[in-house]
Design goal:
- The chain has 350 residues and is an alpha+beta fold.
- The protein is 34% helix and 27% strand.
- The chain has 11 helices and 19 strands.
- It folds into 2 domains: 160 residues, Thermophilic metalloprotease (M29) (Thermophilic metalloprotease-like), CATH 3.40.1830.10; 183 residues, no CATH class.
Length: 350
């Protein structure tokens, strides 16, 4: 029997997030998820008069492709997926996983080639810039374990978060967006954290369920050379299949000059990917009322109520651009901090 919560989630994705219209095409990319959510997305796409294009992927297969890859092979995949992405007006990425560290043993040079040749041209360029898109995780026992919850309790939590009234949230976040648009100086203090930077002149963007599910953040970017101080992140994160904890960064004039954590060597290898990887491309405040504690999932952690995230790597060129360019974009999160913003020097708001 079909879980009615799956139908409700599919309805959010088709009729709210991507707003599918008659005659349009949508690419549904399903990775390690049940057939039921794919079937409902197809059905509701057709009810909207639109045309679904479906691809089914598996993380174990992706791992094998990357481990045994050549640049020529990756380019072939990128060419095919680029052609396909250019045929659609919308993209829905439903991403599950049976093992969050599935890609952890892919060689570093192959992961960099994947990002450079395949991922960024197809998703960073065509999808992000030319389609209406939304991405989400799908619940699994592994996600429940990462959240420290039973499978049943996590599913209840998941569907409450992902099918909330995002139109109501959209209206409620506008005052924060306006405040950040007016802000010059930001100061963040907390355990192990004393960070200062400017966001003057850089747009603030509300995230209300149109691009990510779950959602609930307003993001901008720091003026690239303005970041100074230290930040201690108090939530774990996974990047390219590797878990990192207790990340501590020291900044001088916008650049990360010191980085330590549970795997300092790997952390610095990522930050040495290119010049932009040691500068910050995004600053955001999260406030989804249903996400109250961290788990090993970026899309949930970055929306956690009472948190902020600070992202080494590429800025969002078309939305909140501070000029930073990089092949990486890696969100890190912290909570229980005091954020002070100033419209101008000497005037503060908490």
């Amino acid at each position: 029997m079909l879980d009615p919560r799956i139908t409700k989630l599919a309805d959010v994705l088709i009729n709210y997030s991507t707003e599918m219209k008659p005659g349009e095409n949508v690419l549904i990319e399903a990775i390690d998820v049940p057939q039921s959510i794919v079937g409902e997305l197809i059905r509701l796409t057709r009810e909207a008069g639109a045309n679904p294009l479906v691809t089914i992927k598996n993380n174990e297969i992706t791992r094998s492709l990357l481990i045994h890859s050549s640049d020529e092979q990756l380019q072939l995949i990128a060419d095919v997926e680029s052609m396909r992405m250019k045929q659609v007006q919308a993209y829905i990425g439903v991403r599950g996983t049976h093992n969050i560290t599935e890609l952890s043993d892919v060689a570093d040079d192959r992961m960099k080639a994947y990002q450079r040749i395949w991922w960024r041209p197809v998703h960073g360029n065509i999808r992000v810039r030319e389609t209406r898109w939304v991405v989400l995780r799908f619940p699994s026992p592994g996600m429940a374990q990462s959240a420290g919850m039973s499978t049943a309790a996590f599913e209840d939590f998941y569907f409450n978060v992902c099918t909330m009234d995002y139109s109501k949230m959209s209206a409620a976040m506008k005052p924060l967006e306006r405040r950040m648009e007016q802000t010059d100086r930001v100061k963040i203090v907390g355990p192990g954290t004393d960070l200062r930077f400017s966001i003057k002149g850089i747009p603030a963007v509300s995230c209300d369920g149109k691009l990510n599910i779950p959602d609930g953040e307003v993001f901008t970017a720091p003026v690239c050379d303005s970041v100074n101080g230290v930040v201690q992140f108090n939530t774990p994160t996974v990047y390219q299949g590797m878990r990192h904890e207790n990340i501590r960064l020291v900044f001088k004039d916008g650049k990360i000059c010191e980085a330590t954590g549970s795997d300092t060597k790997t952390l610095n290898k990522v930050l040495d990917a290119d010049e932009g990887a040691r500068h910050i491309g995004e600053f955001a405040i999260g406030f989804n009322p249903y996400v109250t504690k961290p788990m090993l999932d970026i899309l949930f952690n970055e929306k956690m109520a009472g948190s902020f995230h600070f992202t080494p790597g590429a800025a969002y060129e078309d939305e909140a651009d501070n000029g930073n360019r990089s092949q990486i974009h890696w969100e890190w999160y912290a909570g229980k901090t005091l954020i002070t913003v100033a419209e101008k020097f000497g005037s503060t708001t908490h």
